[in-house]
Amino acid sequence: MLIFVLSSLKIVWGAFLGYFCLIKSSQSIWIIIFIGLIVISDILDGVVARLIRKDSAARRLFDNLTDAVITNFSFLVIIYYLDWSFWWYIPLLVRDGFMSLGGLFLLRGQRVVVFPGIFHKIARLSLAAAAVLMVIGFMGEIFLVFALFLFYLSSFDYYGYFKIFMRQVRKTDKISEAGLTLDELHLNSSLNGLRALRSNQKLLASQEMLKRR
């Protein structure tokens, strides 16, 4: 229960962030503080979960869902606060929309939950860094484009891993026979998914591409 409380702190900080953005507070430092608290909470809950050995699939799935919700909500209210065009939010909405649908497909069809590697986490954290620069008015547009580039790069990497996984499943007709007996797939961060898409290579050994928990 403690772990889920820690994960839920992001929602609390997000609510405060939304409040200060919606009232268009002149104290932008509060917006930056709550962006920082969201990031700290996101890192802290995983660290604590591993320390007390409560890092379950349910906790990680809840964490992934709250990450997506808080990221989208935060950017929407920050764009409102800055009076930027809503079109700046569309790329993030499209990306997370497709990722959520893909994750739902795997969860319902294959009973598999995919967890990101370090690169995928850094891509999401880059959005938080871009948000801070947007608020302080230091090359916010440039850094947001760069963060979205990383975000979409991680999406193609996910897609590459998805293709690898589905080939393995089709090859054996059973997840268990594919060597994937657990319902969790932990991606590594060597961008093998992108390499597989680029080279259109045949399926590599699952242990080279995926980390099993």
How does this model look, in words?
It is a single chain. The chain has helices at 2-22, 28-51, 57-82, 90-109, 118-136, 140-172, 192-199, 206-209, and strands at 113-115, 184-187, 210-211. The longest helix is centred in the last third of the chain and has 33 residues, at 140-172. Helix 1 packs antiparallel against helix 2, helix 2 (28-51) runs antiparallel to helix 5 and helix 6 (140-172) packs across helix 7 (192-199). It is globular and about 60 Å long. It is mainly alpha-helical. Helices cover 73% and strands 4% of the residues. A three-stranded mixed beta sheet has the order 1-2-3. The chain starts with a helix and ends with a strand. The model is unreliable at 176-182 and 202-213 (pLDDT under 50). It has one domain (2-151).
Count of folded domains: 1
Find the count of extended strands (DSSP E, 2+ residues): 3
Which structural class best describes the helix and strand composition? Answer: mainly alpha
What is the H/E string?
HHHHEHHEHHE
Indicate the low-confidence ranges by residue numbers. 176-182, 202-213
Instruction: Report the radius of gyration as a whole number of Å.
Output: 18 Å
Question: Key terms for this structure?
Answer:
8 helices; mainly alpha; 3-stranded mixed β-sheet; 73% helix; 213 residues; 3 strands; 4% strand
